[in-house]
Amino acid sequence: MPAPSPVVELRDVSKVYPPTVKGGAEVVAIDGVSLTVDAGDVYGIIGYSGAGKSTLVRLINALERSTSGEILVNGQDIARLPERDLRPVRLGIGMIFQQFNLLGSRTVAANVGYPLEVARQPKDTRRARVAEMLDFVGLSDKARAYPDQLSGGQKQRVGIARALATQPGILLADEATSALDPETTHEVLDLLGRVNKEFGVTIVVITHEMDVIQTLATKVAVMDQGRVIEHGDVFDVFSNPQQPASARFVSTVVKGLPSAGELAVLRQRHPGRIVTLAFRDSSVDQARVFGEFAAAGVTFEVVYGGINEIQGRSFGHLTLALTSAGGDSTIDAVLDRVRTLTTVTEVR
Ligand SMILES: Nc1ncnc2c1ncn2[C@@H]1O[C@H](COP(=O)(O)OP(=O)(O)OP(=O)(O)O)[C@@H](O)[C@H]1O
Ligand SMILES: [Mg+2]
Known about the structure:
Blueprint: E1 6-17, E2 27-38, E3 42-47, H1 53-60, E4 68-73, E5 76-77, H2 86-91, E6 93-97, H3 108-118, H4 123-136, H5 152-164, E7 170-174, H6 182-199, E8 202-207, H7 210-216, E9 219-224, E10 227-233, H8 234-239, H9 244-251, H10 260-269, E11 273-280, H11 286-295, E12 298-310, E13 313-324, H12 327-339, E14 344-347
Parallel strand pairs: 3-8, 3-9, 6-7, 7-8
Antiparallel strand pairs: 1-2, 1-4, 4-5, 9-10, 11-13, 11-14, 12-13
This protein binds adenosine-5'-triphosphate and magnesium ion.
C-alpha cells in the first residue's frame, strides 16, 4: 500500500473570535487542533452544537482566517496566504451545506454551472460538464427545473453536482444531511460514498449524527469545546471509545450496550452479578472466555447483547448474569482470568 499522503493538515490551529458584546469575553472556537486528513479519506468530524465543527471547515477553505497555527492544504500553508492567492486554493475545495444554498432564480443546470462561470470556463466545456454531473447525481431530467420544485434530497444532489463541477480534490460537507429524513439521508450518503470511490475525492464530513459517521466515514475526530478530544479509525473509536464524550456519541448507535435504565431493569430481574463483556473481531476467543466460567463452575445467563458491523469488521457486547455456589470469591477469581482475555465491565 502506498504511504498515506496528507491533503489537509492542521498544526496547533486556534481561532479566537473577539467578544460579541462590548466588554464580553473572547470566544475560543478552535483551541489548538492538530489533525491530518489523508488523500482518499472520508473523515468524519463529530461533536455537540458549539464544539467548533463549522469553524474548523471554514478554516480549511479559508472562508475564515485562523488566529494561530498552520493549515496545510496539499502541502501549502494557507493560513498565511494573502487573500488574492486563496482563489486557486478555494477552487480545489468543494462545499455542501445543510440548507443547500442553491440560487432560487437559476435552473438546476445553471446552479451546477455557476462555479464554472466564475472560473471563466468556455460555454461548451460548461455545458458538457453540467450534463456529466447531473447524470452522475441522477438528475438529468431536472436540468430545467428550479430549486423550489425539488425535494430536499434532490436539492442536496444538485448541491453535490455544483460542488464537484470544478473537479475539486476535496469536498467539505457541513451537516449536509441534517435537514433530510433518514431514507433520503442514506441516499445522499451513498452518493457521497460514490464521489469518494469513483472520483477519488477526499471528503470531510461534519455532523452531530453518529449514524452518518458509521455509514460513510473511515476516520473520525470527536470535538468538544474547540478541541479534538479523540480521533482514529471509525472502527476503533466505535468499538473502544477512550473519552466519555465519545462514548456518549457511540452509545447512540452501537447495538448491545444496555442503557442505565435497562441495566436497572436487568439488576431487578436477575439475582446474580451483572457483567458486560466486549468482543472485537475474532481477537477475543469466545470459547476460552466461556470455558473459564464453565471450568470454575460459574453459571452464566446471557441477558443482553448485540453485534455491530462497521467497515466489514464486527464488534459487540454481551451482558451476563453470573451465579456460583462458590460465592463472590469464585466469581472474582474467574473475572480476573476473563479480564486477561477481554474488557469486562461490572454493574454493581
Ligand atoms: N462569527 C463568530 N463570532 C463569534 N463567535 C462565533 C462566530 N462563529 C462561531 N462562533 C462561536 O464559536 C463556537 C463554535 O461555533 P461553530 O459554529 O463552529 O460550532 P458547531 O460545532 O458547528 O455547532 P453546530 O453543531 O451548532 O453547528 C461557538 O461558541 C460559537 O458561538
Ligand atoms: Mg455547525
